[in-house]
Amino acid sequence: MKIVGTVAAMRGVSAGARRDGKRIGFVPTMGALHAGHCSLLRIARQAADFVAASIFVNPAQFGPDEDYTRYPSDAARDLALCRGEGVDCLFMPAVAEMYAPDRSVAVEETALSAGLCGAFRPGHFRGVLTVVAKLFNIVQPDVAVFGQKDAQQARLVQRMVRDLDFPVRVVIAPTVREPDGLAMSSRNAYLGPAERKRAACLSRSLRLAAKLHAAGERDTAAILGRMRESIAKGEPPVTIEYVAAVDWETLAPVARVERPTLFALAVRVGPARLIDNALVGGVTPEGRPPCRPTIPCHGDTTED
Ligand code: PAF
Question: What sign does the CA torsion over 130, 26, 165, 173 have?
Answer without folding.
Answer: negative
